[in-house]
Design goal:
single chain; about 110 residues; alpha+beta; 5-stranded antiparallel β-sheet; two-stranded antiparallel sheet
């Protein structure tokens, strides 16, 4: 993956795994997320979780190696389109208020 140093939002595919104490993978998933901000020590993501809710996740910077950009017709997926879809999902199914506020800022 290319290194993105700018602080522009982008749509990413995040593959994460929950590993137990003995090194066994307990749970893994593939989610489409909106990378809102790259902070000093954490990445700020808005995720449409499997239970339907829209959540605001903070993950360590090292997790960026598990993220790839999402393409739409050989171009980066439009951030405004993703924000609009996630906000619609938030209104229908609920989620974190912090996610709603960030989505409204991105949509405008």
């Amino acid at each position: 993956m290319t290194q993105h140093l700018e602080d522009t939002p982008r749509v990413v595919r995040y593959t994460w795994a929950l590993v137990g104490s003995k090194g066994k993978v307990l749970e893994s998933s593939n989610v489409i997320a909106l990378l809102v901000k790259r902070g000093r020590s954490r990445l700020h993501l808005i995720v449409g979780a499997n239970d339907g809710a829209v959540k605001y996740w903070l993950v360590p910077l090292a997790e960026e190696r598990h993220m790839t950009d999402v393409d739409y017709r050989n171009k980066p997926y439009p951030v405004k389109r993703a924000a609009k879809l996630l906000l619609r999902r938030w209104r229908k199914l609920g989620g974190h208020d912090r996610a709603r506020d960030a989505l409204k800022a991105l949509e405008s």
